[in-house]
């Protein structure tokens, strides 16, 4: 390792694309919560959640540097590419973790701060260090880490957790396996070479396609929970219904696709769709919530 990391290498450690979804879902969780928060405090809270997410990414890249060096889509990350030492990444991740948790607790409340600490721990230790290399259920269980941010945002405003915030968690939690398994279906060579037991490599393509389809059905149903709990209206309900059925349809096409090139093409299509699914769904929830508060609907 040569070290000598540049600013852009530290930014890469934060996994900015992943962070953007984390920040957005936390922001929505904060705004749909049944209470108000001072805008300055709200900005600090979102910044802390973003920094905490970045810390998780840095700790993940520190621990996974060996398998990142094997997989084509991760070989150019700062550590395997030799632009940063593992020690630099570890120190960066730990400092950001402590800073984000402490500031969020002091700025809002310690329910939110403690939950952010648990989220970082779950992603860095439970998922990255334990589940990822030991079980094909790594994404199923480990996906909880990526589903916690709207609950953290909700807690930052209310100081509590609720069934409504759990509904937001559940949507992201159920979205995670079909999202990553679709990726794994057309990238299974990479995961196999790295020794990561993703579902297609362990259970086979046919079983993975069936599981994706079942998760899509449950996800489509769970996406309607905000309507059921009464903190969204018809705008969100309509978007959730259409996007959920589209997810099911694409999963069904993948299920029916023959092995080989056709299967990989449909897997890529589903993965691409899933990238925008959560953003559209949570944007609809935010829009619907504003419309309800303004009395438009």
UniProtKB/TrEMBL annotation:
Example of a GO MF term: protoheme IX farnesyltransferase activity
Location relative to the cell: Cell membrane
One GO cellular component term: plasma membrane
EC number, UniProt record: 2.5.1.141
Top-tier EC class: transferase
Membrane-spanning parts: 18-37, 43-63, 84-104, 110-131, 138-157, 163-186, 207-228, 234-255, 267-286
Keywords, sorted A to Z: Cell membrane, Heme biosynthesis, Membrane, Transferase, Transmembrane, Transmembrane helix
Catalytic activity: heme b + (2E,6E)-farnesyl diphosphate + H2O = Fe(II)-heme o + diphosphate
Gene3D superfamilies: UbiA prenyltransferase
Pathway: Porphyrin-containing compound metabolism; heme O biosynthesis; heme O from protoheme: step 1/1
GO process terms (BP): heme O biosynthetic process
Keyword Transferase in record: yes
Membrane topology designation: Multi-pass membrane protein
Family annotation (NCBIfam families): cyoE_ctaB (TIGR01473), PRK04375.1-2 (NF003349)
Further information: Carbon 2 of the heme B porphyrin ring is defined according to the Fischer nomenclature.
Protein family membership: Belongs to the UbiA prenyltransferase family. Protoheme IX farnesyltransferase subfamily.
HAMAP family found in the cross-reference section: CyoE_CtaB
Function: Converts heme B (protoheme IX) to heme O by substitution of the vinyl group on carbon 2 of heme B porphyrin ring with a hydroxyethyl farnesyl side group.
Record-given protein name: Protoheme IX farnesyltransferase
Organism: Devosia elaeis
Gene name of the encoded protein: ctaB
